[in-house]
Design a protein that fits this description.
The chain is of the alpha+beta class. Helix content is about 15%, strand content about 45%. Strand 3 and strand 4 (about 25) form a beta hairpin. It is elongated, with a radius of gyration of 32 Å.
């Protein structure tokens, strides 16, 4: 991970800190002076713009589908950090304060798709020279590293292939419509049979 050092913090009864950062410690004869120095590492931070795109014959049905994504990494203190974002096709999301020079795991989670639409795979890519992407073809997980000077900006694209699968079970509103139409058709058949039976009886 990239980081810079903050201004050193000196303390002690006989410590004098000048404006230029130099320190003078006054020690008398047969005296002991206690001096404390604290150095703080400040992580170098940048930003990452994540853009979602969908392709395939199921893309038109998924224009407003929300795809959840989680980013995780380990900070300078060894603690895990997590960011959750929601992506919609064509609507970029900018993450700020992303640590430079640190491996960040990016994972796309499952979501509810339109009826008969099936998720085929994910493709991670970038056009930037200051970000590396490590992943397997079709995998919903990628490991990225953004480099550069503090304030550097990088971009990442996540593309999903969505296809229409007629063999998928019908769910939701479409299922309700199917059952409604089936009920109407069944009722019409029963009425027809009753009328036909009455005609035969009168004959």
């Amino acid at each position: 991970a990239r980081f810079t050092w903050a201004d050193p913090e000196w303390s002690g009864d006989r410590v004098a800190v000048a404006e230029d950062g130099t320190v003078v410690v006054t020690i008398g004869a047969a005296d002991v002076a206690e001096v404390s120095l604290v150095n703080t590492a400040v992580p170098a931070l940048g930003s990452l713009t994540v853009t979602k795109s969908v392709t395939g014959d199921g893309a038109a049905r998924s224009a407003t589908t929300v795809f959840p994504v989680t980013l995780t990494w380990t900070d300078l203190l060894g603690e895990q950090q997590t960011r959750d974002i929601e992506l919609v096709a064509g609507d970029p999301v900018i993450l700020t304060d992303l640590p430079l020079g640190t491996e960040v795991s990016v994972e796309e989670h499952s979501t509810t798709l339109a009826d008969k639409v099936r998720w085929v795979g994910a493709e991670w890519s970038t056009d930037g020279e200051n970000v590396t992407v490590s992943t397997e073809s079709g995998s919903p997980v990628a490991v990225i590293t953004v480099t550069g000077e503090p304030g550097a900006a990088a971009a990442l694209t996540l593309q999903n292939t969505l296809v229409v699968d007629p063999d998928l079970a019908v769910t939701g509103a479409d299922a309700t419509m199917v059952w409604t139409l089936a009920g109407i058709a069944l009722l019409a058949i029963l009425i027809g049979l009753v009328l036909q039976r009455r005609r035969r009886t009168h004959a």
